[in-house]
Specification:
Oligomer: single chain
Number of helices: 1
Shape: elongated
Largest sheet: 6 strands, mixed
Structural class: alpha+beta
Strand content: 35-45%
Number of strands: 11
Distance between the termini: 73 Å
Amino acid sequence: MHIHKFEQFWIKLSFVLIAFFIATVVYGFVAMDLKVVGDHATVDPQNLSETPFGNPGVREVTRNGETEYEVYVQTIQFAFNPGTAQPIEVPVDTRVTFYITSPDVLHGFDVAGTNLNTMSIPGQVAKFTTIFPEVREYGIVCNEYCGPAHHVMEGKIKVVPKSEFDKSNLVE
């Protein structure tokens, strides 16, 4: 079969570019010791009871003399724990750090109406910190297909005034 010289040129150029891109990535990871973005903490997804995810919920912490909150969330088929059966309640204008993982399959954790969005990967702990500036309810949706009931996987975050925040719902 005869291949036209211009086609041969573009085929060869394509292979050269592919080899160049692969070499660049390998060089970056080997010679320059580059890493994938993020410092992902990991847990055993089959044994979450030995981690803070064994008792998910909102925890109060003090950092640098300031009261902050940590929220541990399990994304499980087809619910957020907490979030679905009971809303995640946090006070307004307070620093809140979310820790999210999954014991079963890949899920999404998207707080509707905000830029808070992460993947929940079994065994990896996703972390993000935010301050909710106003009192309101936010919806949480799973934006990664996780099975046949994916479309019903939703939850809520309830941001309340500091004076109405009920600390009796905190977990230890």
